[in-house]
Amino acid sequence: MSWQQIPIKRLQHDGCLYLKFAKRENKTILAQCYQAPPLRASRALYLNSADPSEATVYMVETSGGLVAGDQNNFEIDIEEGANVCLIPQSATKIYPAFNGEWSTQCINISIGSKASLAWKTEALIPFRKAKYRGETVVHMARDASFLWGEILSPGREKRGEIFEYSNVKSNFQVWMEGECLIYDSLLFSPDHMDLGQSGMLEEHLYIGSIWFVTPALQNMNIRKLNEGLQQFCDMKVCASILDGKVANVRWLASDLVLLKKEMNNTWNKFISYKD
Prior knowledge:
Layout: E1 14-24, E2 27-36, E3 39-41, E4 55-61, E5 71-78, E6 83-88, E7 92-94, E8 103-111, E9 116-119, E10 123-126, E11 131-140, E12 145-152, E13 167-176, E14 179-188, E15 206-213, H1 222-229, E16 236-242, E17 246-253, H2 256-274
Parallel strand pairs: 1-5, 4-6, 5-8, 6-9, 7-10, 8-11, 9-12, 10-12, 11-13
Antiparallel strand pairs: 1-2, 3-4, 12-15, 13-14, 15-17, 16-17
GO cellular component, one term: cytoplasm
Pfam families: UreD
Family: Belongs to the UreD family.
């Protein structure tokens, strides 16, 4: 019997990070912070010269990744008028599920009137035999802004682990005062589906997504944005506007460095609309 077949008994780690932001005079402050290992948050930093009132907080996963059976919970509450940028310190790594259990991450976000949240892009990296499920639910006011980026990796590409995970399930929802703007549900099971077929990933390895919701979206020229994105023959990308309220850009790529560069360029374009 190999060590991978030996029954594993371990304590489950349920991390929790609760952050509440509020506007005080002309500044956003971190009004409340509760953190349970392995999740941690930095103090509020003021790094945005274009918006000195914006609070930037780095989020840290001190255990290095999610082990099978672990669950991380994020609760983010942004009060009226507050401007926040949240930055994951590193990619989210999902370790193998040798005990058959799922690794879980839940994110609940509330954004008040005239408030904004930018959640910077990082990658999810499921290791060989990993099982991951994630759910993100955002509730926001009609005059609030929300910018979100994410990347799904095929695994540890440099180690030759490409689509060797068991399952990755994600559900992403954005609600505006009771109206569902976004319901994006993804399931990848490489053992049970051909990810290389037409309409799936084809020859690509990475999926990148940016979602943007803001009242200023009506001023966006989606045709011009699409023309600016179509620059690389080995990368597929398309931008769309949903019901005049949500902008979405989704990439299929095989070069992670190039994908991050392109996503960062698009991110900066969207930030200019928010300002």
